[in-house]
Design goal:
The chain has 172 residues and is of the alpha+beta class. 46% of the residues lie in helices and 17% in strands. It contains 5 helices and 5 strands, in the order H-E-E-H-E-E-E-H-H-H. The chain has a 5-stranded mixed sheet with strand order 1-2-5-4-3, sandwiched between helices.
Length: 172
Amino acid sequence: MNIIVVEYDPNWNNEYLKEEHAIKEILQDELVNCFHVGSTSVPNLKAKPIIDILLVVNDINELDTYSVQFEDLGYEVMGEFGIKGRRYFRKGGDNRTHQIHAFQYDNIQEIERHLSFRDYLRQSPEICKEYGELKSKLADQYPTDIDGYGDGKDDFVKKIEKEALKWHWTTL
C-alpha cells in the first residue's frame, strides 16, 4: 500500500455521504447508525485520503450475510481482521479509498473509542496539528510500509485515545 498524507479536503464529507447512502440501501433495518470517523472526518487534519466509516449494527453476525452486496459496492470483505467483534471492509486495493469498521450496537468500548477520538480532535486544534505533522513525517519515512507507518503512530494514538475518552465523560 502506498502511504500518502495530504492536506484536509472538504470534499471528504461528500464522499462519506455518498457511501453512507449506498450502505443504507443495502443494510436497511440491520443498520442502527453510521458515522464518518478517522482523520478525513476532522476538519483541517492532514490525512491519508481514505474515508473511514463506522457502522453500528443490530447483529454483527448477521452482517456476514451481506458480503455479496458489499463486494458489489467494490469492498473486500475482511472479517474481524484483528479486532474481535468487528467486521472490516476495504475498498480500492493498494490505493484504498474507503474502509468500514462495523460493530454490534452493544460494543460500546470500540464504538466510543472511534467517536471520542474524532470528537476530541475536532475540538483540539493543537493536538490535531501535532497528529497531522506526525502522520506526514511517518508517510515520508514509510512510503510503502503500512506496518511501519501504523507502528509509528501507535503510542501517540493510544495516548490521545485515553485523553479523548476521559474528555468524553467530562462533556456529558
